[in-house]
Amino acid sequence: MSIAGKNDRAWFLVYTKPRAENLAQENLLRQGFDTYLPLIRTKRRKQGKYVAVVEAMFSRYLFIHLNFTTDNWSPIRSTIGVANMVRFNGLPSMVPAALIESIKAMEDEQGVHKMPEKEFKEGDSVSIIDGVFAGLKGIFQARTSQERVVVLLDIAGQYTRVNMNKNELLYA
Asked: Do residues 1 and 56 touch, judged by C-beta distance below 8 A?
């Protein structure tokens, strides 16, 4: 899709420096640019416990609303927190407005998306992504509480029932 000569505003993709999505957005807003940074509420392990955090939905990316012909794009690249504009074949990558609207439509009243709960079923193949058993595969057995589950792990040729936090699992 060619964007040359387009007079309408469109959404484009900005690639940020590592963990600098908020910093890049703040500095772009300060310069008068219209941006959108989708946020997600999820759980992360901190000091051995899982805590709720709000972070960028798309690590290292944010959206910027620009007019291809009339906006001055040159300050974007040198903005603190910005690594570059995402480009394909030398042209800035245009994002469909419908995609932005559908992402915005799923936000809660604070403008944040909630990560869907993992609903494992008995017999599901799972991978352990955190904790002492990280890297192993197992079979989901049962939920024991709101946060705890039982998984069968093949350890030394025998299946062993292991109780662990559900946040340590992914579907295999």
From this structure: no
The listed CATH number (2.30.30.30, 3.40.50.2000, 2.40.150.20, 3.40.1710.10) that belongs to domain 125-171: 2.30.30.30
Is 51:44 a contact under the CB 8 Å cutoff? yes
**Contact indicator for 31, 95 with CB cutoff of 8 Å:** no
Q: How far apart are CA 156 and CA 79, in angstroms?
A: 54
Mean pLDDT value of segment 40-62: 86
* CATH-assigned architecture of domain 9-114: 2-Layer Sandwich (3.30)
For 151, the enclosing helix (H) or strand (E) is: strand 148-155
How sure is the predictor about 154, in pLDDT bands with cuts at 50, 70 and 90?
A: confident
Tokens of 74: 């040159």
pLDDT of residue 81: 97
137/146 Cα distance (integer angstroms):
22
